[in-house]
Every structure is written in structure tokens, then in C-alpha cells.
Amino acid sequence: MFKTVDFIIFGCFLTFSILVGVYHAIKAKSKAASGHGESAEFLVGGRKLPIFPVCLSLLTTFISGIALLGLPAEIYQRGALLGLGFIPGAISFLISGYFFVPIFYKLQFTSVYEYMEVRYDSRLLRRVGSSLFLISTLFYMAVVLYAPSVALVGVTDLPLWPFILAVGAVSTIYTAIGGIKAVIWTDTLQAVFMYIGLGTLLIKGVSDAGGLANIFELAERTGHMSDSVFKFDPTPFQYDSFWIIILGGVLHWTCFYGLNQMALQRYCSMPSLRHARVVMTCTVPAFWAIGLMCGFIGLLCLAYFHGCDPVAIGEIESMDQMSILLAARVLAIIPGMPGLFLASLYSATLSTTSSGANSMTAVIWEDFLKDSYSHWSEAKITKLMKALAFAIGAASTLLAFACDYMGGIFNAATTTLSATAAPLVGLFFLGVFVPKANKNGAFAGLICALMITIMCSIANNIEKPYKNYVLPLTPNANNPNCRDLALNSSTHADVHISVFKHHTGPHPHQSHKDWHYGDPNSSLLARTSPFSYAVIGISVVMIVGTIVSHLFPVKLPEQKAYLAAACTYAGRDLKFDKSTYGSELQAVVNNKLSSVSSEKESGKYLNFFAD
């Protein structure tokens, strides 16, 4: 389905991405020669990053192949409700911009997990938080590397491994040599490719599928619209519901666009807090637009393939390949356009993996290596960072091959990433909103939340309680897109391929509503909705952490109490100079305390941590 010209266009795109990295590596060296820190350029771009590229980089970091391939496949199989998950994303930006970003911008930590040590007075908690981030991000990078590669395998004669190695190698190279500026400017290029590719596919696809009216009418008739969306059962032991998607979506996106190293590293790299908030504001409409486009591809697939499910007829092997098959068919009449779609697909993947590698490098250096190697020269430190980025890229590429055993890219991303990210974000919620929270409560809350979410994730991946939850498909002999395909209507009618693949016979139409609550023989942990992990993880940390902190209080010395208070929302106006955090702590904090407007106000902040 893809011709030589398509792969030439795709190859040019990959080459240009590497060239951007080379350019910024050379530019960083020139700045280092003129007095700028080369390592600072590599991690935070000298804290002078431009607004528009950062906005697009932030967008493409978390809109990866998971969204471009996994979300349409989910909507095709289970309805449009998941597409609503992008709506509460705006609320998460508001929460992050109002409560969290001002605090972290004031702190100016290169690794946001330095917050754990300052707020809770625990180096161990800082390193535990950093380790959780490193593990979850490495898995996330692996999943997004796997996503487009497995899709392309279904429509080409090539094996899986060349695609994974190609995109892994490219993202590793330009990230390792160019640093965050290469990441951000390449992300900008990739965002443009992504919008052009998706826009072209949607315009041509809507025409081929019979128009907007036909698409929405079919979605409503097959239960993919109102029947899918208006599910208000509050129980978490179901695949999804309106409340799970909306409420869970707010905290889910806060985990990524609010309290995530990859996001906060960009916000804190802006020239001012106002610039950081402008970035967040500008990202919201772009975020909604790309979410709407990804979700609509699912409905477009439903109409385009109505009556000739491509997995049922053996044209592809996995629902994750649906979007790429649609693009190959719809854009085939325009030379080079399938190649442009490949570029847009891999744009999202390259952005995510490069951002992850750069952020992981920052965390490893700041939280594990800096104390031992800070005496090194800038040149040696930068070389070490580049070696770290290269090693991270190689590790994520190797791990990508394991994703083939996790039941689809959307499930793999949701269950593995949220299970570790949510409890970690809960520590930030606890630290910011509960002034008397201490390290005892933080450890207790984190352990309890991790036990629950990880057990849910493991049970979900092993038992797969929702593998048979799919909306039924019906035959359609009049679909012109099926005219060359011979269908066996006796097995295709009222049967969806995911059900058909797991059973020797057709499954009754009415059973799909029961499967929405999962296999009754599976455990409650397995049936806990993956989209509720963020709510569960953050809530458990907050509840357990608050209770344990009150039962087992910790009395901090004055200087540490001041710094901890500056890390809370109530103490957001307290000054914090990062240069004071270290060996000169006592003297400088005493000076800070004397600058507080009154003795009463000073005592107010210190008493946050009193028994």
C-alpha cells in the first residue's frame, strides 16, 4: 500500500529531525564558548525558550502514537465516550497553572523531585519519586515506540523490528546531541506534520465515508454515540462511564500536563511565570483540536469500514492498525500523501521519546549523580548527559519489543503509566495542599497507593476482563469501500472481531452490555477501570498521608520548616532562592526569616509543621 515515494518522504523527515539536533548541538557549543553553561543549555535551554515552540512541544509530548492509533481503535470498538476525556484536559491546565506551576517556577528545580527533599525533608523520598518517574517514563517511551511500528507491520511486508529500531535510533540521536532545544524545535516541526497529515486524512476520509451526516448517523445507530456516552453508573468496576472519564480525566491529564517532569521542565524553562501561563493557555485549544481529530478518526473508521471489518476479513491483524490502513486507502490516490501521514504518525512518537529521554537525563543527573560529579567541568558533564540520553533511548527501544504482549497500545499505556504516575503525583498534591503533611504520611500514602494501583494494573493485564467488551458490527452490502470484499455474513453479523477472535462461535448481540462490567469470573482488582487509576492513586495518597501525618508528626528545625512552608500553596508567597538550598542553609534562611513582614507571620508558617 505504501510506495517508494512515501518512504522517501518519510526518510527525508527523519533525516531533517537529526539535522535539527546537529544544529542545536553546534549552537549550544558556541554559547558555552561565550560563557553560557553547556549543561544548562542541554537540559533547560538557558531558561529562555520561546512560547510558540514550547506550546507545540508540550502538545506533541503526550499526544503520541497512542492517541493517533490507540484512541481511534478504542472508539471504533467501544464508542465515543473515551473521546470526551480530552474535554477535562482544560480543567487540568487551569488547576496546574493556578496551584502548582507558580510554586515550581519559584523553586526553579531542574528535577521536580527535588521538591520531595525540600518539602518532606527526605532524600530517600526524593530518590524513590525519581525512580518511579524513570520507570514509568521508560515504559511510556517503549509503548509509543511500539505503537506506529506495529501499525505499519499490518500494511507492509516488513517485520516489526526495523520500524522500532529506526524511530528509536533517530529520536535517540537528535536528543543526545542537541538537548532540549533540539527536542522543542523538532517537536514544532513534527506538530506541523501531524496537523497537516491528520487534516488531510479527515477531509478526504469524510468524503469517502459518505459525509459527516452519514458518519454520525451510523455511529448513533450502532451505539457508538449517545448509548456509549450517557453511562452514569458511578461504580469503578466497569470499563468506563461518564463520571470516570470526566472526573478521572481531570486528574489523569494533571498527572501529565501539570505535575510531570516533562511538562514542568518546559514551564520552568520559560523566561517568566507569565510566559509559562501563556504556554499553558495556548496549549488548551491545540490540545482540544488534536484530541477531537484523533477521536473522530475512530468514528471515521466505523463508517468507512462499515460492513467489512478489516480484522474480521483478515486484512490486518490488530485494531491498532486500523488508522494506518485507513490512511493508506484514503490517501493512496495522492502520490506521497501516505508518506506524509507516516511522517505525522512518527512525529508524535519522536516528540514523546525525545522529551522523555531529555527529562530522564535531567532527573538522573540532578537526583543521583550531581553530588558526586558536580566538580567536573561543563564539557565533561555535558558529555555524561549525552551518554545518559543515548543509553535511555537504547533501553526504551529494546523495551518496546515487550509491548507486543500487553494487549494493545492503549491498554498498555493506560494501565502501566497511570499505575505509577498517579501515586507519585499524589505526593505533590499532599505536599502542596496539606501543610502539616510530613515524610511519615508521604511514605505511608505512597506505599498504599502503589500497592493498590499496581495490583489493579497487573490483574488487568493478566486477566484481561474487558477483552470481550466490544460494540456489535452489522453487515452492509451497499458500502462501496467493501465492494471488492467477500464477506461471510453468517459470522460477521452482530459480531465484532475482538469477540470473534476469542470464541469459536459468534457472540450474541445483547451480551456487549454485560461485558462492559467485565468478565464476572475476574477479580474486582482486574475490573477496576484503568481510567480511574489517577483518582484512586491520588486520593489514597491524600487520605492516608493526611491521617498518618497527624498521627505521627515530625518537628522540623526552623530553617527547614521555612523551606518546606515555601513549597505549599499556603506559603506560595514566601521567597525561595535555590542558591540558598545547600551548605549555606542556616545563615541564609535566618536572613529570609528576618525579612518576613512580621514575627506573627513568620510563626504562622513555621507552625504549619508543629504538632
UniProtKB/TrEMBL annotation:
Keywords: Cell membrane, Ion transport, Membrane, Sodium, Sodium transport, Transmembrane, Transmembrane helix, Transport. Its main location: membrane. One of its GO terms (biological process) is sodium ion transport. It is found in: Cell membrane. The keyword Ion transport applies. One of its GO terms (cellular component) is plasma membrane. InterPro entries: Na/Glc_symporter_sf, Na/solute_symporter, Sodium:Solute_Symporter_SSF. GO terms for molecular function: symporter activity. It comes from the Eukaryota. This is Sodium-coupled monocarboxylate transporter 2. It comes from Panagrellus redivivus (Microworm).
